Amino acid sequence: MAGATQQLWQITQSDLLLRMLISAAFGGLIGIEREWSNHAAGFRTHILVCLGSTTIMLLSIYGFSQFVNEPNVRMDPARLTAQVISGIGFLGAGVIMRNGSEVKGLTTAASIWVVAAIGLCVGAGFLFAAGLCTLFVLISLYLLNKMEKIYLKSRSKHELEVELLDRSGGLVMLSQALKQRELDIVSLQVLSSQTGDGGIEKITIRFVVRSRKNNAYMDAVRYISARPDVLALRTGMSLH
């Protein structure tokens, strides 16, 4: 009985090598997708996270096999695993960046977290679950991302900065013009206000709008640029 228990907590070098190779392959597949998409954490980062998780899992299960038969020792393979799950957050936090109201890197942070989980599965010999998870992650990152871009193409956020003479409620008229063209105003910010020649006030306004139909944004740009009270117009594109 003791011999069977001892064998349970041991692994051959060939099996260990196989699990490490599978871990590097699964992590690399997800990392390649992130690399192609020009994200901060790419191919090498995902391989390292997956390999590290696998190594810790292997250590947790098989690294203390010499103490199995000690009467005062209780083996707990999940102890080191729990530290990986809680500790991987520092890497995820490092790739999340905030720029104003926009947050970037959430998907990459999530991919790092799930790659750690894949590594733990590989290290524990839960290979089918690791492969299945890798497949679903690739589908989510690549195929669903393509579908999302197609679906949200007409719901893009656009930035519009307008300098105009505010002599007859120009701000209100611009807001109404955008809404009439089925553009939702996400945010509105008055950047500057000054009095020009003749005592007429000039203001600079930044709109962030979301279009609900194709060509709505360009239609609004053409209308605004043609207004006689508009002095300058700057356009730009924000993220989804």
TrEMBL record:
Membrane topology: Multi-pass membrane protein
Principal localisation: membrane
Domain MgtC/SapB/SrpB/YhiD N-terminal: 20-149
Membrane spanning stretches: 16-33, 45-68, 80-100, 112-145
GO cellular component entries: plasma membrane
Subcellular localization(s) per the UniProt record: Cell membrane
Name of a matching Pfam family: MgtC
Keywords: Cell membrane, Membrane, Transmembrane, Transmembrane helix
Family (UniProt): Belongs to the MgtC/SapB family.
PANTHER family assigned to the protein according to its UniProt record, in alphabetical order: MAGNESIUM TRANSPORTER YHID-RELATED, PROTEIN MGTC
Record-given protein name: MgtC/SapB family protein
Organism annotation: Paenibacillus roseus
